[in-house]
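Hello K.,

You asked for the raw outputs rather than the summary table, so here they are, unedited. I folded two proteins back to back in the same session to keep the settings identical. This is the first:
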Amino acid sequence: MRDKVFSKKEFIASVTENVKTMYRKTLKEATQQEIYQAVSLAVKDVVMDEWMATQQVIEKDDPKILYYMSMEFLMGRALGNNLINLGAYGEVKEALEEIGLDLSVIEDQEPDPALGNGGLGRLAACFMDSLATLGYAAYGCGIRYRYGMFKQQIIDGFQVEVPDNWLKDGYPFELRRPEYCYEIKFGGHVEETAGEDGNLHFEQVGYQSVLAIPYDMPIVGYGNHVVDSLMIWDAQPKEEFSLDSFDRGDYDQAVEQENLARNLVEVLYPNDNHVKGKELRLKQQYFFVSASIQRALERFKKHHNDLHDLPKKVTFQMNDTHPTVAVAELMRILLDEEGMSWDEAWEITTHCVAYTNHTIMAEALEKWPIDIFQRLLPRVYQIVDEINRRFVEEIRAKYPDNEEKVRKMAILYDGQVKMANLAIVAGYSVNGVARLHTEILEKQELRDFYELFPEKFNNKTNGITQRRFLAHGNPLLADWVTKHVGKDWITSLAKVEDLTKYATDPKAQQEFLEIKKQNKIRLAKYIKEHNGIEVDPNSIFDVQVKRLHEYKRQLMNILHVMYLYNQIKENPGMDFYPRTFIFGAKAAAGYRTAKKTIKLINTVADVINNDPSINGKIKVVFIEDYRVSIAEWIFAAADVSEQISTASKEASGTGNMKFMLNGAITLGTMDGANVEMYEEVGADNIFIFGMSADEVIAHEQHHDYNPYDIYNNDEDIKKVVNQLVDGTYSHNDRELFRELYNSLLNPQQGQVADRYFILADFRAYANAQKKIGVYYTNKSAWAKSAILNIAHSGKFSSDRTIQEYVDDIWKLDKIEVNTEGC
């Protein structure tokens, strides 16, 4: 498909043959799902040639390999993205049209692989795309969740979690690799014996175990024949079924191993509000980390005799704290299975593992109760204990008589295993994901570690892949960009800067606005079909789609919608440009406040959307089950991008970049990557409001913020807040949203009132929204700003981010794959 001339005839024959051999049907008899499977297998056949060629080059050239360890990989649909990166999307579309098939309809048959949830997982997916496109050998390492986090249904306005059975029809782009099978052990105890060499030897006995089996998915690089691998692990019992136990009547014992294996890979982020949930989550982390490290070491030893050379050929990047147990697991294997001394193993480990921090908030840094950790991973715990003992000695030597340093920095303290501390102590690199985020880590949250290890800390501002979020997600705009600046932007996003000269061109502005309108019509049709709500494509599409968390302030957004509704009701003739407010978010199953916010959004939508007196000036839409495939449409259609997190709380954000790339204008705080976006695009082309990170941090340190002062002195705010508990949006149930009201004014014991400064920033937010309404009426000015946003998005490509990781941290070697194509 790349080097050869594409043959429509051969492709159609391949699809036809697949339908016949898989389903005993003709194309006319096949269902859309069956056609999707057949088309995908035809594409996979092409990918397989390049995948095998890539593996052969890796075997021959022996480059350094990255193992990117992440609990999440939010990949999105593979068919369309693979076709784009193969350079065959247009040809395949035409070939299918010749036999009466619509590629868009076929793509809609593909489930979104339920392997992630939010920005962390989508970043990992973008990084894998960039690694392949830039020509670096890499494995993404994670878990093959059978049901993902959950499929979100909205019933009576509430989020209801149901299983996301994305594998029910089979997934054509995965490849089971049973030849790489590893045993993972849990529980039991450690026996120590003295060896002939005089050293102690450690053996875990009395354990339960499962087998880890990898499923590989191809990650296709754009236009370069390189295909990397996403290696996600499934769990299987060592013994499927104990007939002996069953015959004795012990039916639970008969399937015990099977249940352990199934539970490990059932869901992403099991609810850990209880002990069993915490145990399962820790087991999941150890399961995929241990399997991935065993696979990496087996691959290394195939070509190398000396494990002391491991750092020259292998690097493990820990994506947040979830995979941090990798530190102790690598040590365990080197000590117990390879017979190394502690110092040898530590030298290797600390030159192989690196850590990306994704959160500023201390409470989000993962900690495990020691009793759970020690019970589930007894030998790994011993190693963590020894790492901690040596590190505490180092702290006390450096800071004598300063036990406060020990309290803050020890890995084991106050009955907890502090995973971020372990990652920093062992990692050769510690990076934040936006400049402001890294500065806050260095000066605030991780200051003690930064003072001790300044050479480890660095920043790598996040990025996104333009191939999925422009080339695939917004083909109309992608073609327009190519028409004006050429197609090199697909692999070098900085080329879009050449659009700057078109920002003031009336013809280009009109073309852009027409493309935006077509994308809004497409999304409006989806909303009508799925929500039953008529929205006006000529209204301002104001969008906030992301994981639902209090610091992201979806609550402030919907309170502002309530405020606008009050304004219009009180002043029916007021000058107001129609708005469609679009939300999309999942709340963690155990996160009560977040789930109540979803209910509030939906009840406000129900009231406003059904009030004929406002003449459709406001519409509110909550997109059910927000995921990558619908996200692509939303980014393409958005006019306004809501990035309104409390300053100092958002590590980076990547949704902000996807909106920018698609010509939406940001409404945001100076938080995360918004700061760098502001610098790139300029103050005239972004709407910034609210307190700065320094101001927020100062309030938190001085405890001098009282939301009651604002509540009592601003009647508009007071009315909106009171509407949470006066029955306006709850059919006179005054308690339904009491929890949200209390979070603003009456916190529970140990909590802080309006912790995320919603009321403090509310008036500034409302004023910025008012400016947007005025600015949008000047279509030429709006189009200019939108085009300039696209033109200045070049910095925010994941290709740039990955190249910085390669240059500064990983030191990978490029590979070149030559193939005859297909």
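The second followed immediately with the same parameters:
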Amino acid sequence: MTILSDLQNEGNVTGNRELFQQAMNEGHSAAWDQNWELAAQHYRRALDEFPEDSQALSNLGLALFELQRFTEALSIYQRLATLQPEDPLAHEKMARIYERLGRLKDAVRFGLQAADLYLKNRDVEKTIASLTRVLSLQPENLTAHSRLALIYERLGRRSEAVEAYLAVASLLQQNNQVSKAIQTVQHALELLPGSAEATQALQALRNGTPLPKPTRPRGGTGPVRLAEILKTETGDQDRQALDPIIEARQQALIQLATLLFDQAEHAVSPSSPSSRRGLSALARGTGTLLPTSQADRTRLLLHLNQAIESQTHGDDAQALQELEHAEKLGLVHPALSFNLGLLLSEREPARALQYLYRAAAHPDFALAAFLLIGRIAARLGNLSEAAIAYLQALRLADGQTVPPPRVGELNQAYESIIEAQRNEKDAQKLQSLCESIERQIAQPNWQDFLRKARQQLQQQKGENAPLLPLAEMLLQTRSAQVIEALEQVRQLAAQHMLYSAMEEAFRALSFAPTYLPLHVQIGDLMMQKGMTQEAVTKYRLVASLYHLRGDTGQAVNLLQRSVQMAPMELSIRHQLIELLLNQGRTDEAVQENIALADTHYHLAELDQARQTYLEALRIAQSSREYRRWALLILGKIADIDQQRLDWRQAVSTYEQMRALQPDDRDLRKRIIELHFRLGQEAAALNEIDNYIHFLISANRVDEAVQFLHDLILEYPQKKLLLRYRLAHLYRQIQQTEHAVAELDTLADAYIELGEPHQAIRIVREIIALNPPNKADYEMALQKLLRELPPPGSSA
């Protein structure tokens, strides 16, 4: 905390320091777990006590930024900048927020201010990073290039200085200041005589040839692309509301641009804490896969950048080509699938369907994907498939008009309608259905229209009436017959008349063979009759059909039931994990992977268990709960390593855990124990020293002392080394009396072991501490020196 903040807090007599510190500690804990919502709540509590505390404001700003509540975060950092105008942090954060909001001029302005303040604080690397970020937004910014040139020159980084000076010369030439441009290049040649680039630039200036314009730093196109898309999106919304397909197109572009944005952050500030997000930030909750090769990632991002630019400016043919290159390089993302399906829908409709069905598995794109599937199928003459896709789209749209707890009830009602349509052969009726839903949904303001329709339907039926789908207003179906049959089956099952219920269910299948809720009910009857394996097989089949129809949520629910009934059926878990990832339900996928690994573990298949835990850890990298998952999974992996007596690997695994949770005392002890077991005494002592340093830095001195006392008891064979560290700790915290006592014990121990030289060294350390009985130790030292055996003696 700064002196200014301390003075301000002294003036706030109403603040409770203890409550403030408690709230800050709880906020830090929540932030460490990446629970930003909870962290923000705790930091606000801290600010209630001391409203102008700079650290609390800074931490709250970070929490709001991570929550993507950029406007709120901006106001916090503005307050912080007012309180601490010389602190560059607030200006840097405001610049980054303006980037996210698409306000690039403001981002450049505050970025330059942050660079100036970092330079005043003599933090050169952060100055360079801020200026580079500015150039990623505005590559022709003369101020940024000029300052970078001077900084590189003073640092002795001559080749980079020359590059910056040539950019300055190019901009001066554009501003018709040719003489100044020539002077700038001549200075560059003085810095790096013989530079081919500078020599060519000087010749070009003298000949009147235009110099190349400054280029954007690598990875810097993301913020610009995102700003362009946000600007376009805002303009569209100002003119009129968007229909579902255009809205999904905008969402897809934003998600792909955000991928570029995060890579730009990673490229500009690779050492910052946020860089862990890098390319994986967008992967959280989306099922994203990226190529592992850095070269392939670089090429992928180039194609992605060009695709976004082309699609934003209406060049769909070029955008399609670039997106296909990105896919070939290994990018898997629902936004990519939707964009490919959209761009192929007119060119190659059959191929477009493959991508659209894939995109329909993700909630962000399901509605628009089914609308496009309906259009394509209708155009290809497959009216039955088109009608089902349109009904799926209506189901999703209708689900937004009812409370979330009743969406499942509504979905089941749509199942019966969709089932009835599967048997519809009248092309005119199917065509009419498709056109009707197209008119209702594929239009601006579709949400308002459906809400009004829902209100009218509810008024007609009464508030307490069963929930009816809006599809009932669009068509007449025989869905009631299917619903009645299913209800009859359930009533018989409730009366434990299982054979009669099964007969009724199979009778209903004769006129509704593909009605999936009926098949689920048959599976339930099998379970009640004790036919577990048959029921699980039925559930898996129905889940596959649900997934093929685009209702991945229902498929997941069935597979989860199957896993509970047959936990040893590993193939079910694999199928479930795949569907969870398709839906972006990362945390649930991690949980299922852990359960799968646990199953291998209980079967004593340790190698397979370890590999599956590693897969769970890989998936967890895309989760906001990464730290929690990583600690759990790594602990299980370390346990396997120890069972296999692979202690070196166990140490490596525990060290990964330590990086996530450095204050875990038991974890530190496990690492120390393994180092001692491996005979790596120096590594064990280094671990002890690091933990003691950590505790002292955190002002937890008593814990550090107790930790060393415990180790002395646990490792008596290492007590001399450990007591010496305890003495050093006492000396560091200025508890001289305790330090002398520990050193005295050590000296006696060395004398008993017949190591007078070590004893002499320890006594000299005691004398250096100037204890009250210093004279006694000086006499003891003289005695030890007299008793030393003469050099060369056998003793």
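The mean pLDDT is 81.

Happy to rerun anything if the numbers look odd on your end.

Regards,
P.
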